[in-house]
Amino acid sequence: ACFEQTDKGMAEVVDPSMLFREERQAPVPGTCVTVTIEGRRAMLAEVQALVAPTTNPNPRRGVSGLDSSRVAMLVAITERVAGLKLADKDVFVATVGGIKLSDPSTDLATCLAIGSAGKDTPIPLDVAAIGEVTLSGDVRRVPMITQRIAEATRLGYTRILAPTGTKGSLDKRAAGAEIIEVANLAEALREIRGTSSTRPDF
Fold it and tell me: What is the pTM of this model?
């Protein structure tokens, strides 16, 4: 369960997913929604990234809410796969609402947020991403995928990027969303480029 401190004491948060993602009317670069598991409960969380030019000979890498060594690995993978040049840029990656994410299923969303920030191209608001990313850039399946997709669908996400083989393991709880299977990060980036209605250069 999740609780928040109010002027009347501790109060239960009925829908914790609302705490850990931003509500916005238009997409902005550098953000991607994912679904994590806390205990046995699926919760949506938003990963945000900022890529900014710097004159500092040692560009900064700031991380909040995620494992810093894993983010460093994901930055390197995204740089290689997306063709980004990040060696002369500061890169900051954080979660919304202060949530701590250690679930590998957030890897794909983190990579897409970094790629979105690096290309200055937003990811559509109805897209969520779930999957572990390996050093080779492959996207691996994660546990409890049906619960994750059902939660994302419940909250209005109609297009969900997920590892190859996901469709065959789903049941009726995950009905209502378009499952876009991707085998690797390169495919995920191409899918996002195809779904983006603002700029075609992702």
Answer: 0.86
